[in-house]
Design goal:
This is Gene transfer agent protein. The protein has two domains: 139 residues, Pnp Oxidase, Chain A, CATH 2.30.110; 81 residues, Beta Barrel (Elongation Factor Tu (Ef-tu), domain 3). It has four helices and 16 strands. The protein has a seven-stranded antiparallel β-sheet, with helices on one face. Strands 10-16-13-14-15-12-11 form a seven-stranded antiparallel β-sheet, with no helix packed on it. It has a two-stranded antiparallel sheet with strand order 3-4. Strand 14 and strand 15 form a beta hairpin. The chain is flat, with a radius of gyration of 26 Å. It starts with a helix and ends in a 16-residue tail after the last helix.
């Protein structure tokens, strides 16, 4: 890259330049979309950059300190580039973004001048506006332990360490009935207790919505019909017969960790922390005030 920078710098110092911008978006599922604001496609860095997408960028703000680099990208929605339904489904949320300044007359002269992730995406009038967040955005994340009674881990993550692949904690099955991508129902699906999947996940395994998932709001049984409702609808088409996976839920309580998952050794909460009633306790004239506990 250093050689390319030197060549591009020499080109820029020449006065008459042939420079454009190029962008590559890499989604979390591995799909890569590459664009350029030049009027012809370009090829470099192992990518083919499309020229018919209408993607452009506003002024890029960068600094040498620790402030967050930021910019915005504008683009047109189309079936061959960024589709409206995929943005609506959240498939571009948190995608990696790379931006180059490139000599379109000699694409080997290119300089990577921005690297970060997509933030908020707004759709309007057949186009979109995407917020770009630089690498220093990660410095805004809170770090350290949270001292609280409930467990701070996510079920199955590196701190929880619970194996969700066990048959008694997940179930793969086809959709029988679905309403609005939010309410799912099955006849005679009674192999798990009611509320077993509450606060768990519903993951779509095939079809147009493959890869999407939702958090389960409630799991109940009514007249031998199991009804699972999500907090928010799946943002994609889910039809009868679509394969999905249900994952058991956890309410973060120590009793649940011990009895439902037998995983109390990895519990990440502090169940013996005193509650708010203890914090606001004060001496009372009706009690014995001998210097002992107020409880």
């Amino acid at each position: 890259m250093a050689d390319f920078n030197e060549e591009l710098a020499a080109h820029l110092e020449g006065g008459l330049t042939t420079v454009c911008h190029a962008w590559a978006i890499t989604r979390k599922d591995g799909e890569v979309f590459a664009f350029t604001d030049h009027d012809m496609p370009l090829s470099f860095a192992g990518l083919e950059f499309r020229a018919d997408t209408g993607l452009s960028a506003l002024a890029l703000a960068q600094s040498t300190g620790l402030s967050v680099d930021n910019s915005e990208a504008l683009g047109a929605l189309s079936d061959v580039s960024l589709r409206e339904d995929e943005i609506e489904q959240g498939r571009f949320d948190g995608a990696e973004v790379r931006a180059w300044k490139v000599n379109w007359a000699d694409p080997s002269q290119h300089w990577l001048n921005f690297r970060g992730h997509l933030g908020e995406l707004i759709r309007a009038d057949g186009g979109f506006r995407a917020e770009l967040r630089g690498l220093t955005e990660e410095l805004n994340r809170p770090l350290g332990r949270v001292y609280q009674k409930p467990c701070s881990a996510v079920l199955g993550d590196g701190t929880c360490r619970f194996n969700l692949a066990q048959d008694s904690y997940s179930q793969t099955l086809p959709v029988q009935t679905v309403e609005g991508g939010r309410r799912f129902a099955w006849q005679d699906f009674l192999s798990f207790d009611a509320d077993w999947f509450t606060r768990g996940r519903l993951e779509i395994l095939d079809g147009p919505a493959q890869g999407l998932w939702g958090t389960i709001k409630s799991d109940r049984i009514e007249d031998n019909v199991r009804i699972i409702e999500l907090w928010e609808p799946i943002r994609g088409d889910v039809a009868t017969g679509t394969q999905l996976r249900l994952v058991a839920g956890c309410d973060k309580r120590s009793e649940t960790c011990r009895l439902k998952f037998n995983n109390f050794i990895n519990f990440q909460g502090f169940p013996d922390l005193p509650g708010e009633d203890w914090v606001v306790s004060v001496p009372s004239s009706t009690n014995v005030n001998d210097g002992g506990s107020l409880r």
